[in-house]
Write a structure and sequence with these properties.
The chain contains 3 helices and 7 strands, in the order ααββββββαβ. A 7-stranded mixed sheet has the order 5-6-1-2-3-4-7. Helix content is 22%, strand content 32%. The longest helix is centred in the N-terminal third of the chain and has 20 residues, at 2-21.
């Protein structure tokens, strides 16, 4: 009987020590819920960008994600009917995206001129970003 009690006590001590050394595990969130203020990417692709004077200055063609965050919009500038387009990357902070409930329409406005966008550093779809 004494041996059994000693064995049970020893087992309890080993299990207690083992559980104390177990690393904490963190859980990652698998599913999320969209908020009413969220924007889907398809609402942005091909969205015309206007300036404060309501002049069309470009069109959002793509989104750039970095470290799970939106870091830029690729905007086409210049060109006509898809010919001669030039692409620039615009900070999301520079573009105000809104949804006009009455019109059921998305808008993109930024404080820039066509000339400013035409002289911005060019982005090219090449290398790893080739289409």
């Amino acid at each position: 009987m004494r041996r059994i009690l000693t064995a049970v006590a020893a087992t309890a001590m080993i299990l207690g020590t083992a559980s104390a050394q177990t690393a904490e595990t963190t859980t990652t969130e698998t599913f999320v819920t969209a908020k009413p203020t969220d924007v889907l990417s398809y609402n942005l692709i091909n969205l015309n960008v206007t300036n404060n004077a309501n002049e069309a200055i470009g069109e959002i063609k793509d989104l750039i994600l970095s470290d799970d965050q939106l870091t830029g919009y690729i905007v086409s500038v210049g060109g006509f009917l898809g010919m001669g387009d030039r692409y620039v990357i615009v900070s999301p902070k520079a573009v105000k995206i809104t949804y006009v409930e009455n019109d059921k329409k998305w808008t993109a406005v930024m404080d820039a001129t066509k000339d400013q966008l035409k002289t911005a550093p060019e982005f090219k779809y090449e290398g790893r970003w080739e289409r």
